[in-house]
Structure formats: C-alpha cells, structure tokens
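About this split. The held-out portion is used to measure sequence recovery: a designer receives only the structure tokens and must propose an amino acid at every position. Recovery is the fraction of positions where the proposal matches the reference. Here is one held-out target exactly as it appears in the evaluation file.
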C-alpha cells in the first residue's frame, strides 16, 4: 500500500512560507534560518522554491532521492528542487504545457547548480534508449564546455557564469528528449583584457596552460607559465578546489561528446592562444614631424607568433595597429593611432575575438544538439542568467545585467499574479485585488523607446559631434530628472544637489532590489562596442577558416557603411525576445539565496539574506499568494488527510470528495468566511485554520494511534495465544503419539519374548521327540543291517575262498621283490672296493634288506679283490697292516710311511764284494738291510752302522769295512722304545742278564723306523716260543748304556733350529732330542 504523506509531515519550521503565522520579515527569516540549520535548504512559497546555497555537498541528490520524488505530488514530500522539476516535467509530458524554469538570484547563490540539478533530474526520469541517452549526454555535456569558456572566478563565486544562458530542451509526445537550443546573453567580455582584484580571466585560459600536453602547447606557441601573459591576472591564478588540468581533460572530452571535430577543437584552441599572444603585444610612442605621437610595436615577436597562429600577414596587422581608416561617402581618410588608441584597438580586438568565439561555440553546440525530428515538440526552458549585481564600481555591464533582472522580476510578478488570478477564475472563486510593488515603472525607465536610458544612450552614440560619457549623463539629467526611480546630482530635480553619496559622474537607479550607483565612464564606448574596420578586415584576410567566419563584416565586398547595432540595443532586443518566449510558457521559479559572502557552509548571515529576500520580493510573493487564500488543496487529498476528524467521513466516505469535505468543515464548525469551495479545490483563507485542522488531526492521529496500538496489541496477543494453543495441541498430540508408540513397542517386545520362549520350548520338545524317533529308526536300521548281514553272510559264505587275500598279498609281494632284485641287478655299482655308490631303494619296507644287500655286496667285492693278491704282496699288506696296528695314531711319523713300500733290503749286501765277509758271517736270510746311525752317549752324535735283520738276529756292522760290531739274538731283546714324534730315534732294549746286555742298549736312528720296528715285531711274534716284543711309544725313556742309565727326552724343537733332528747331551743322565714340529 502506498503511504500518503504530505509536506506537512515532520516539518522543520514551515515548509511553505504561505503557512507562516504571523507573517513578518522576522518570522520569515527565522523560518529560513531554522530550516537552513537543519540542512533543509529548500522552502516553498506556494509553488516557488527558495533555495539556500549550502556551500557543501549534501546527500540529497542521490538516485534514491530521484526515485522518491518521481511521480509524487508537489506538496506530498518535503520541499526539494526535484519536486519542482518533477512537477514541471510531468505537466509538460501529461498536460502538454511548455514549461520554463526561471532561476534567479545573486551571483554565487547557486543558480547554475540548480539548473544542472533540474537538468540531471529530468534526464534521470525521462525515457531511456540508445538514441535518447545520446541526446541526454550531449545536452548535459554542453555545460562543461560553456562553463570553461564563459565562467570565471570572481570574488563572489569561484565558478561564476559570466554570461546568461537560456536552454530549451525539446521533448517528443512521450516525454523523451529530442534535442535542445541554447541562447546566450551578453558575455562579460571586458574580463578578457582586465580582471578586478582577486578575480580571474575565463577558466579556459588557465585550463589550457595547465592541462594541455607539451606538444599541444608547442604547436600553439605557448609556455606553461601564467606569468608570461599580460591578460592573465596572477594574484588568483590557481583556485583551491579547482583542478584546471583535470577540467581541461573534461572539457576536451565533453567537446568530443557534443560532436566537435578534432580540427575544430584545434582552431578553438588556436584562437584562445591568439588572444593570450595579443595581450603581450605592447606599443611605444614615436614622434612624427607634425608633432603628433604615433604608436609602434615594441617587440614584434609575439605579433609574429600570433600572425602565424591565425594565418594573417604580419604587415597587415601591424598597419591595422598603427592606422585607422574612416570611410564616408566614397571617401577614405586614414589617421594614425597614438599609443593609447593602439592599446584600445588591441583590447577591442581581443574582446571581440573571444566573445565571437564564444558565440560561435554556442552556435556550434546548437548545431549538434538540435532536434532532428521536424514534428511538433514540447519545450522545457531552463534560464540561468546572471544575478542582480551591485559592486562598488558599477558600469555598463552591471546596468545591463540589472536591467535583465528587473525584467525577470517583472515577468515573475506578472506571471505569479496572472497564475493566481487564473486559478481563482478556474476554480470559480471571487478575485480580490492585491496590493504589491510593480516594477514596470523601472523597466520603463530603462527601456522606453523614447526616453528610456538605453534609447538615450543609443541616441548619444549615433549623434554627430563630440560624444562623451558626460554628455550622455547630461542628457539623462534633463530627460529622466522627474522619474521617481532616477537619481543624479545634477538632475533638473535639485533634491540630490547635496547628496554627497552621489558623485558627479554617476547616476543612481532605485531598482526593485535596491539602489545601484552607476558610473557613466565607458558607457558610450561599451555601447558602441567599436572595432576598427582595419582590424576586422585584417582578421577577415586571415588564412584560418574559423577567424574568417567570426569577422564577416571585414569582407571588403560587403562593406557596410551603416553602424552596427549598439550593444544596448542588441541586448534589449534579445531580452525582449526572451520575455515573450517565457510568457508563452508555464513558469516554475527557483529563487536562489546565498546565506553568506564567505562561500562558507553553516553560516547564515541574516542581514545578507534579509537583503536578498527583500529585493527578490519574497515577502510580497508570500503576500500575493496569501492575499486571497493562504492554502488550497484538491478535495481528494484534503478529504484523505482530514477524514478522521469526523465520524461521517471516517473511515470511508462513499460520496464525492467535495461533499465529504463540506461535511467535514460543517462538522468541525469552521467559520464559513475562513474557506471557499472551488471547483476542484478547497481554499483556506488563513494559515490559522489550516493549523487548527492540523492540530486536530494530530490529536486524532494520536487517538487513532492508540486505537491502532490497542487493536494491534489485542491482535498480537490473540494471535500469540492462538499460536501457543495451536503449538500446545501439536506438542500434546506429538507427545501422545510418542507415548503410545513407546507403550506399544514395550508390549510388542514382551509379547515377542513370551512368544519366543513358548516357541522355543515347543520346538525343543519337538526336537527331542524327533531325535528320539530318529535314534529308534537308526537302531532299527542297524539291527536290521546286522541281521541282514548275518543272513547274507550265512547264505553266501560258501561262495568265498577264505585265504584269497593272503594269496593275493603274497603274490603281490613276490612281484615287487622280483622287480626289485632284477632292477638292482641291472644297476649294481662297479667292483672297486672304494666305490661307495648304491642304487636308491624303491620301497621303504625294503630298508633293512637294501642296507644288508649293500653290506654283503661290499664284502663280496672285497673278497674278490683280495683273491687276486700274490703271496708276496699279501705279506707286504700284512706287514703294512701290522705297522698300522702298531703306530696308527700313536707316532706322528706313521702317516708318512704309509706310502713308502717296505723294501727290506736296501743295500743288496750279497752282491756288494765289500761286504763278502759280512754276508758269509750271517748265514741266515737277510730280511732287512739298511744304514742306521748309532747315537754316541757322550755327545749325542751319530755314527753310521749297517743294520741287518734276520729271522733270529739283529746285526750291527761298520758301514765302511763291513766288520761285525754286534750280533744280538732276537730273544735277548726286551723291548723297543720310540718317541711319539716324527723323528727316527729308537732304542733297542736288552733283557737284563742276557749275554748281549753286557754292552748295553742301543740308541739308533733310522730313516725307515716304521718298517724296521714292524719287521722286528713281526718276526718276534711269529716265533711261537718267544714272547711278544714290547713296543713303547713315549717321549721320555731310559736307555741302559754300559754303566749307567741315561734318559732320552724328546722335545718339540723351535723353528730356528731348522728341519733337522738334533740330539744334544744335557748332562750325564740326559740326552735331549729336539724334533721339528710336524707340519
Ligand atoms: N545545491 C548545492 N549544493 C552544494 N553546493 C552548492 C549548491 N548550490 C551552489 N553550491 C555551491 O555554490 C557555488 C556557486 O554556485 P553557482 O551555481 O555557480 O552560483 P551562481 O550560478 O548563482 O553564480 C557552487 O560552485 C557550489 O560550490
Ligand atoms: Mg552561475
């Protein structure tokens, strides 16, 4: 539901001055101040918007705000410039009424900002689409271009518009923008050559020097230094908060969007540069022969560069600065210019160049933004014109500006009154005459065609003879003397003769906005706006397309001897056109006020505001508005707003709104003279009555609020209760369900348990029975089987052979054995007794047999082997066997003897003639003959002896001679001793008491010790009558030499003694034999 609001809601002070009660100047100002302090910068007087300049950005121009004010009634929301823009746009779109927005106020009051706000609002709410957006963008972007060339910093405003601007925005029937037309009024061109203290020249000069690239500046022959140019005032060349360089880029960009070509932009900049150069041209006097001074250019460099920029010939321009040609009736007179005239000419050229450039820019922009479609269109005009100006020193410009404002005030008064009157007529209300100040008389003083000030100035300018500003003043003094708004010291009306505030060269006009003193100096010149023809012709000759266009009067073909229209005349004419244009449109007013002179936020200077309020005629505006009825409102919103005040209309009125309002008013007992009924509106005479209604409404609203609160609270509590109740039921039902579920589950569980027990018991019982049954069945079956078996066996026994199995077994075993033996036979190993191989056994049960067979086979092949031996070989083996029995593992010498064959006779004595005698002495067969060493007991040294062994004796003989030394019968031998080691020492011990024992035992050493002792032992053991010869193997034994016993001890020799066995006598009773360690 859309909430109906009103201007009257949450008001700070009153939003509409019409409602001010009581209406005095003080309360008016107080209201403005109060609102200003609360950031409410807009206030209405009826449909007029008063705007106070906040001098800071407020958050009230956001897209949200645009949406808020879009399509809302004017009085529905708190005052805002958007409300006015919306109202204007909607009546343009919906009611097909052309609109104009008139923005007035002093310089710096916020007019230009207001015009931009209106335009941006309209752009935001009107139609969208590619084409429409392009148009919008071009319209909006024309602003920065015109501001750069037409705005300047003044003491009042850092961005003061120095021209008047009226822009018609054209819309199609849907309210989409089609294009626009801009008109400009009187650029303050004197600023180009001179600026008051603390002010600047037009922005574009500073922007160009700060923002252009080095390259561009070089092309324009400029330097980035303000101080190089005479036309630029230096004391405020840079303005805080203004970024000239960035603005230059913005301007170039805007020019591009608006549709300027690159070469056009270049031409424009060249002209700007040329103006700067022009300011640097200086003149010096040169005396001539006729005593007159003639001017000469001081330094021609700047002139040269300027001519290069503009493409003019230097000599032509130089001449134009020195001479002036006057043409009259086919006659040409050329006069020289003095220095002052030359400077005048220079400045005039500069001003003309710049102002014509500005006009060209406006025309060029118009060319871009003009509506393409030729269809009829609706128009919204926005007028942002310079405000009323009062300076210390007011000249022609201020006069013109103030005249313009005077005209605007006039139209304001006329239109407001007319509108008011029209509304009364429309609504059928009786019109009562209203007293107000009408400034038509002042306008007449200025513009009257016969005796108006402008007319007289023109007359003076055109008059032949010497014309000065003073002659002009004289004329005024005569003609306007009686005018009640004209004051001059020397007027015929002598009442100002002693007024010292009025200097002699001035006149004063009582404008609607206050008295302004004008100094007449320069009026004539400025009105004439003279540019010597030589200069315009020089410009026309320039080889520069733009310049040529700007100075058409310089064309020699079209010499026009008629004077051009004066500035005043032109301005009057354009103001006239503007006024008649505005009168055809529905006006919307924005009256701008500046709260202080310091451009400061939050400061509200009451006297300053009071002054502006007075000259803007705001109080009168309120009075006019209130003259008949202070407040009016259409019946529907009125009924909607106050219907709660009466039972009959509350809450719904069924009939027409007007009747409802009538019932309401009668019911409230409002005196009948306080209001009138119009056709669509009710008119309320006094604000008091409105406030009475508002107060009642407020009270009623409070009651209603309480009622609503009561009902709401009741409703809230009830619904809360219902909700609780509903929730409780839900909770309870859920709980019950849950409880039931639980209970059911418990029962179900118990039932299942009982059931399972019962079933278990039954099942077990059944199982038992079944098992028993099964056992019985099995028993029966077994018994039956046995019984049947017995029966069958009994019946069939006769058919079986009782020992078939055994036979089969035996047969099988036989077959296996047969196969085994045949296999073994074919796989028998070789007959060599040392071959250890034997075939593997095929069955484990043959283990024992197999091993036994292997043993038998081995014994058999050994026997076979042995049976091949001869008797001798057999004896040799027997001897070897005996040696083994005697010495194996007892004497270390034994292993080396195994390989040696026992030869026996090593000497072959019988064949040696040397031993003939000896062999004959030994009659028996010699079993062993060898050489041994007999060890001498005295020193342990050995001497070689022949050792012979027969069946009965041991014979020792000299080795050389063969002479017998000893012959010992074997029966005399008691034992033989030898060591355990590798030596060949042995002792032959004799039986005590035998014949041989007299000479003592023999200690001998032989290389064939094993053989010798073995043979000795064999022989002695073969004789049946003799006892066995003892063989002692010890490392220490006693030897009985002739007289005494000597101990022979065998020790392990150290390796340093070498590999030989040595025997040393240690003492009388000890011989020590050192034997090398066996390896
Ligand atoms: N509505 C506004 N909000 C914020 N600042 C404003 C507003 N209106 C004006 N100003 C400030 O005041 C300065 C002067 O405004 P401007 O419109 O140029 O004055 P005028 O055109 O009346 O001479 C602006 O540059 C801006 O700083
Ligand atoms: Mg402005």
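Reference sequence for scoring:
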């Amino acid at each position: 539901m859309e909430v109906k609001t009103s201007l009257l809601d949450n008001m700070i002070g009153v939003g509409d001055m019409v409602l001010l009660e009581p209406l005095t100047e003080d309360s008016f100002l107080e209201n403005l101040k109060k609102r200003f302090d609360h950031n409410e910068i807009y206030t209405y007087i009826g449909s007029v918007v008063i705007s106070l300049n906040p001098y800071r950005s407020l958050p009230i121009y956001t897209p949200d705000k645009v949406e808020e004010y879009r399509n809302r009634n004017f009085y529905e929301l708190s005052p805002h410039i958007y409300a006015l823009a919306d109202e204007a746009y909607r009546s343009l779109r919906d009611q097909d009424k052309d609109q104009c927005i008139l923005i007035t106020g002093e310089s710096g009051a916020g007019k230009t900002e207001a015009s931009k706000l209106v335009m941006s609002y309209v752009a935001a709410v009107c139609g969208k689409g590619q084409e429409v957006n392009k148009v919008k963008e071009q319209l909006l972007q024309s602003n920065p271009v015109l501001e750069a060339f037409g705005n300047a910093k003044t003491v009042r405003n850092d961005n003061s518009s120095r021209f008047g601007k009226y822009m018609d925005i054209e819309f199609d029937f849907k309210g989409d923008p089609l294009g626009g037309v801009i008109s400009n009024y009187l650029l303050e061109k004197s600023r180009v050559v001179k600026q008051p203290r603390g002010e600047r020249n037009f922005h574009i000069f500073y922007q160009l020097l700060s923002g252009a690239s080095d390259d561009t500046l070089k092309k324009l022959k400029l330097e980035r230094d303000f101080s190089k140019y005479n036309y630029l005032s230096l004391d405020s060349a840079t303005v805080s908060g203004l970024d000239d360089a960035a603005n230059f880029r913005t301007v170039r960009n805007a020019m591009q969007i608006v549709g300027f070509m690159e070469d056009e932009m270049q031409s424009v900049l060249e002209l700007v540069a040329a103006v700067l150069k022009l300011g640097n041209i200086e003149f010096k006097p040169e005396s001539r022969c006729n005593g007159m001074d003639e001017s000469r250019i001081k330094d021609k460099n700047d002139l040269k560069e300027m001519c290069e920029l503009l493409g003019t010939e230097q000599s032509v321009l130089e001449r134009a600065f020195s001479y002036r040609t006057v043409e009259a009736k086919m006659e040409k007179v050329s006069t020289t210019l003095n220095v002052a005239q030359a400077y005048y000419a220079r400045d005039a050229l500069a001003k003309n160049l710049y102002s014509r450039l500005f006009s060209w820019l406006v025309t060029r922009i118009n060319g871009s933004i003009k509506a393409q479609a030729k269809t009829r269109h609706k128009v919204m005009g926005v007028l942002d014109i310079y405000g009323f100006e009062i300076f210390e020193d007011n000249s022609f410009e201020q006069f013109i500006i103030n005249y313009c404002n005077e005209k605007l005030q006039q139209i304001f008064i006329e239109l407001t009154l007319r509108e008011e009157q029209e509304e009364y007529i429309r609504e059928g209300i009786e019109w009562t005459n209203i007293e107000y100040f009408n400034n038509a008389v002042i306008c007449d003083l200025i513009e009257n065609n016969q005796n108006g000030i402008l007319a007289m100035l023109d007359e003076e300018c055109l008059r032949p003879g010497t014309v000065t500003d003073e002659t002009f003043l004289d004329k005024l003094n005569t003609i306007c003397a009686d005018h009640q708004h004209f004051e001059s010291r020397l007027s015929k009306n002598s009442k100002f003769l002693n007024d010292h505030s009025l200097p002699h060269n001035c006149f004063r006009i009582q404008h609607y906005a206050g008295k302004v003193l004008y100094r007449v100096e320069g009026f004539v010149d400025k009105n004439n706006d003279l540019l010597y023809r030589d200069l315009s012709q020089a410009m026309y000759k320039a080889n520069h397309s733009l310049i040529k266009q700007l100075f058409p009067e310089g064309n020699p073909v079209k010499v026009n001897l008629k004077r051009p229209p004066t500035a005043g005349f032109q301005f009057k004419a354009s103001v006239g056109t503007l006024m008649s244009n505005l009168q055809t449109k529905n006006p919307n007013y924005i009256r701008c006020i500046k709260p202080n002179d310091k451009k400061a936020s939050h400061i509200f200077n009451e006297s300053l505001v009071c002054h502006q309020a007075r000259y803007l005629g705001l109080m009168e505006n309120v009075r006019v508005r209130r003259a008949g009825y202070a407040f009016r409102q259409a019946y529907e919103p009125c009924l909607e707003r106050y219907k709660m005040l009466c039972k009959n209309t509350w809450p719904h009125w069924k009939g027409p709104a007007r009747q409802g309002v009538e019932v309401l008013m009668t019911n409230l007992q409002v005196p009948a003279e306080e209001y009138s009924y119009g056709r669509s509106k009710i008119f309320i005479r006094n604000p008091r009555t409105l406030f009475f209604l508002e107060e009642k409404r407020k009270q009623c609203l409070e009651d209603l609020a309480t009622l609503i609160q009561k009902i709401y609270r009741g409703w809230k509590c009830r619904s809360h209760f219902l909700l609780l109740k509903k929730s409780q039921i839900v909770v309870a039902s859920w709980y019950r369900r849950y409880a039931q579920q639980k209970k059911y589950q418990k029962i179900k569980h118990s039932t299942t348990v009982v059931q399972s027990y019962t079933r278990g018991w039954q099942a077990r019982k059944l199982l038992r029975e079944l098992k028993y049954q099964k056992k019985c069945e099995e028993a029966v079956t077994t018994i039956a089987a046995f019984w049947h078996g017995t029966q069958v066996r009994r019946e069939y026994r006769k058919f079986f052979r009782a020992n078939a199995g055994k036979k089969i077994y035996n047969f099988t075993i036989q077959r296996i054995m047969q196969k085994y033996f045949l296999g073994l036979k074919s796989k028998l190993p070789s007959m060599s007794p040392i071959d250890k191989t034997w075939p593997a056994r095929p069955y484990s049960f043959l283990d024992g047999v197999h091993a036994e067979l292997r043993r038998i086979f081995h014994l058999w092949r050994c026997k076979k082997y042995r049976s091949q031996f001869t008797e001798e070989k057999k004896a040799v083996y027997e001897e070897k066997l005996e040696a083994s029995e005697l010495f194996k593992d007892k004497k270390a010498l034994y292993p080396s003897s195994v390989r040696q064959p026992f030869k026996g006779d090593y000497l072959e004595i019988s064949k040696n003639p040397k031993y003939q005698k000896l062999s004959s002495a030994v009659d028996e067969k010699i079993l062993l003959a060898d050489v041994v060493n007999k060890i001498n007991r005295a020193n342990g040294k050995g001497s070689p002896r022949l050792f012979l062994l027969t069946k009965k004796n041991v014979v020792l003989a000299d080795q050389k001679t063969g002479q017998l030394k000893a012959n010992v019968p074997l029966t005399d031998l008691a034992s033989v001793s030898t060591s355990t080691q590798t030596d060949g020492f042995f002792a032959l011990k004799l039986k005590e008491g035998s014949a041989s024992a007299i000479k003592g035992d023999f200690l001998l050493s032989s290389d064939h010790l094993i053989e010798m002792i073995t043979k000795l032992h064999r022989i002695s053991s073969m004789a049946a009558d003799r006892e066995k010869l003892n063989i002692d193997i010890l490392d220490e034994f006693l030897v009985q030499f002739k007289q005494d016993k000597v101990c022979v001890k065998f020790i392990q020799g150290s390796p340093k003694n070498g590999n030989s066995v040595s025997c040393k006598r240690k003492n009388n009773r000890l011989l020590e034999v050192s034997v090398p360690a066996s390896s």
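Annotator remark: The longest helix spans residues 687-796.
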